[in-house]
# Entry
Amino acid sequence: MAARALPKGRVFGRGLAATLLIALSLAGIARIAAGAIVPAKAVVAQILLEHAFDRSVARHHSVKPWPWADMAPVARISVSRLGVDRIVLDTGSGQAMAFGPTLLPAAARIGEPGTAVIAAHRDTHFRFLQHVRKGDVIVVEGVGGRTRRYVVTGAEIVRWDRFAIATGGGQQLALATCYPFGATRHGPSRYVVHAVRVGAKD
Amino acid sequence: MPRFHHICRALIPAVAIAMSVPATLAMPAAPAVAQDSALASDDGPGAGTLMLHGLHASETLPAVRLGTDMDVTVTGEIARVRVTQAFRNTSDKWMEATYLYPLPEDGAVDSLKMVVGQRDIIGHIEKREAARQMYETARANGQKAGLVEQQRPNMFTNSVANIGPGETVLVQIEYQAPVTATNGTFSLRLPLVVGPRYTPPHTLTSAAAVNDANAVTSAPVLDPALGAKLNPVSITVHLAPGFKVANLISRYHRVSVSGPGDDRTVRLLGPAPADRDFELDWRSASADPTVGLFSEHGTDGDYVMATITPPADLSKLTTPPREMVFVIDNSGSMGGDSMREAKASLVHALATLRPQDHFNIIRFDDTMTQLFDHSVAATPDQVALAKHYAEGLEADGGTEMLPALKAALTDAAASGGPDALRQVIFLTDGEISNEREMLAALGHDGGRSHVFFVGIGSAPNDYLMERMSTIGGGTYTHVGTPEEVAARMMPLLDVLDHPAMRDLKVSVSGGTLDLTPKRLPDIYAGRPLVLVGKTDHLAGTLTVSGTIGNKHWQRSVDLAKAQASSAVAKLWARRRISDIEADRTLGVIDDDKADAQIAEIGLASGIVTSQTSLVAIDETPTRPTGEGLTSEDLPINLPAGWDFGTLFGGKAGAAALRNADTMAARAAEQATGLDLPQTATDFAATIAQGLALLLIGLGGLFLLHRRRRGEA
# Structure
């Protein structure tokens, strides 16, 4: 009743509502785009990194995948049973992790005694970790052209701040990602796959 | 080539089974079995560094095969057991083998003999560190050496160094243990396999703690997928209890019985894999068996053991109101039969609740849930709810028992009232490595609660549960298979129906007696009180008295009438050590003092304790210099009824069990902490949010549009 008495105000209100709703829709589209770019970036970056890695192997040193990149590929890891391979980057920054798994600088380098730790996102590059089983072979190909084989010894769930690695000793590899895999929120748990180097004397 | 491997795999179990036949135990070097070099597992990358091994599985058969023969003689109420372990090296390398095995928690190991070819090498008792040092020196020199160490009162390791390619070394130990008597049934229990243990990460505070946890978790569990069972056992029991035997039952193994009624011989029908405990029960054919009273005249005095059982007839006693807190273990080690047994036992017990009782249920793995905030009246509705809850439980995860114990002991006087009989009933396999922490917590916070244990499964941790229920003023009941739930729970429910005997007193007239246990346990009708004492001169009368219900009860025995037995002195030593351990857990004496006292008793009595080990060393080195030595922790079978998938499986169970591996263990070793980065983009959530916003916006616009059209 009151609305009918104030047609002008009503038209104005409706216009405002329509504008707000359109804004809401646009914000939604923007959010979807922001979300969708993540896997897209992850996939495209890996393709570019593949090329950079191949060139790196050819030249025996790391080559940047694109001119303004602040990281370079250091290795290719693959699990043939699952048919996956990933190019690993040489910095542990969150930015680099958008493009590929990264070798944590605080841990051992690949091929050194001790544990090398590679981390990646659980919903992009390391989604496959949930399917890795004890006994799987992880092949790590360095930019120097050397191929190292690791056998998975097991997996564990740890808090991000309660993780420690053996320094020295044999060559080990730890692949870390967030846990649980299907979660929609950030949590304190990390899933770590452990592997040890096999068939090498260096 | 693969086919060749298959044939080998098929041969290996057959060889393993054949090994246990006693006749073959003594055979000289057996024909070498083709050996895949991968079978000889070394310690891998962790070797030499201090690292918690944690729970792990073995997917290959070991290079050293083990066969065990047990020869048991039961005289009166004491069993003397000779265990012969044959370590046969099937590889072409020189090997060191370590085998982790269980013994009865109140057993006393007093003899070690190593047989190499035709020669016997007799072991002797030494302080633990000294024995370990001698063993390691001999190992390095290439001499054959054997070492028996106690890791827990019910868990020992035998190490044998320098077993040559194709060679067999026999290690023979002897121990004695009392037979238990409950409600007129005598029971001999020979544990055959150690259940894989869970190590709570918070206990790993020092290198010593990591070493200790390693010692009880070092044995890998053989993957059942291999289709083979290891460590075959043959058992012979000579049963001469001093009376005619009736109702002779082997609970979990098929046996043959021969001989006259008062001197039976019981044999396993063929060798059995060590994957479940052996139990033999019997009763006396006459109505009232002789009083269990045995003595031994030693060089330093006389020893006496007396078993006194209050009458079992309780039909006239009334049951007071109770507050019953059930604590059920649903950790990964309970997966399989054990979980079914625990649930069935719980449901069985719930059915006996009356409306005037209060109750609660606590379940735990590495997390914990209380069904009710505090104990509630046992109305039919609540009991039905509890039953439903119990039936829905599934086994997974680690075994954090301490928080559950603390929660169960939290005594809210409001529930059940201050006069209620407060009972805590644990249903668990007890497969944890922090026994001492549990005992201490119960000793401090026990309050007025009586703590009962129902040990679940084919190879439960008797030591933990026996001691916990003794300290907690309850009893320990074992349920070994799903079929025996009802039969085993019935006597326990009888016990739960009635308070323990009050004003329990033990007195000796006409002599003095230094008695163990120092702290008298709570005793219940039909449950025996076993006292072991030492005196200068055996004489006088031992009297046990107390009040059951409102009735005074008393029983006296004339100590001079005791039958001679050569085992009592060692049982007394073992009991004294239990008393010292109890003092330690209650904080009465400190660690150093307790260790020193235990070492003294161990050396004086010649028995293996936490501080003393038996070591045997062959004088002549046999391993040629230049030949390396490969070490192997012999794998154990998965205990019968356990679920390998749940224990090691893909879910959080395995991960939680393995947590101990890295977290704290590595804090104790030379390792560096490393923060793991945030590794989730959560793009799916972002997209979902965007979609939600878009939907709301579009939906609103659509509604707006419809209303406008409706008005037009």
